[in-house]
Amino acid sequence: MTDHSSNLPFTVAALYRFARLDHYQSLQEPLAKLCCGQGIKGTLLLAAEGINGTVAGSAAAIKKLVDFLEAEPAIAGMELKYSFASEMPFKRMKVRLKKEIVTMGVEDIDPLQSVGTYVPAKDWNALISDPDTILIDTRNDYETAIGTFAGAVDPQTKTFREFPQWVENHRDELEGKKIAMFCTGGIRCEKATAFVKGLGFDDVFHLKGGILKYLEDVPAEESRWEGECFVFDERVSVGHGLIEGEAELCHACRNPIAPEDKLSPLFEDGVSCPNCYHERTDEDRARFAERQKQVRLARERGEKQHIGS
């Protein structure tokens, strides 16, 4: 485990592995029991194609969970990244059985059969600096809004299900190029590169360990990353060294907002932000303003509130 901000009380583990996991249903109960018994919170997804999730707890608790998972032969050697949090970044623990551990909406995509070439973080800059490389951000628009790699193509997708159609629409632009793709932790690119390879493209690459691994391993002074990386927990974002970022969530639309967004006349705490102001009615904003008022009053009374939970 890399010692980045490891003096913070909560260890966050982002993990996944594509594997033949025919007995995945039998893992749900023991995993839930272990996590709840150790005070771990977050989400783990189990499917016949493997495991995916992000969880947080004490360092000792997370070690017990990782040891449990690594003892499963099919899961051993999973992609695993650690970061740290000053407060528990999840509200509850969920272990869910799913059809897929990441959904792209295309049948018969199997990263165990065909996948792009893995590129370690230390070699990523050289690949994406090549003029023959097209760099594609496979994440969704609300994620790319607060940070991405310099020069990356943003497909502006709302969900990962839209990504295959975007590729189909831009096939001519991808012909004859090296195609480099990246996502937060690497799992979406497993399926994205498998899909693109299935279309007949040969020079397909993806960032091993995703943005999180890059921000952990590559010094800021050498980095091609701009902004912060959105994460799916209460920290909202992380920066270089995987330290907690400055982004927050708009409690009206749940999209991330950067500090400069709060300077916009369209921003009102708990009511609107530049992302959602024009998508809401005056009645919506009045309702959100009343909710925010109740939250403020509850805080003044010392009650803990979770907006939008």
TrEMBL record:
Domain of life, source organism: Bacteria
Catalysed transformations (reactions): uridine(34) in tRNA + AH2 + O2 = 5-hydroxyuridine(34) in tRNA + A + H2O
GO BP term, example: tRNA modification
Metal-binding among keywords: no
GO MF terms held by the record: oxidoreductase activity, acting on paired donors, with incorporation or reduction of molecular oxygen
Key word Disulfide bond present: no
Protein name: tRNA uridine(34) hydroxylase
NCBIfam families in the record: PRK00142.1-4
Domain (Rhodanese): residue spans on this chain: 129-223
PANTHER family with a match to the protein in the record: RHODANESE-LIKE DOMAIN-CONTAINING PROTEIN 7-RELATED, THIOSULFATE SULFURTRANSFERASE/RHODANESE-LIKE DOMAIN-CONTAINING PROTEIN 2
Enzyme class, first EC level, given as a word: oxidoreductase
Organism this protein belongs to: Phyllobacterium zundukense
InterPro entries, per database record: Rhodanese-like_dom (IPR001763), Rhodanese-like_dom_sf (IPR036873), TrhO (IPR020936), TRHO_N (IPR040503)
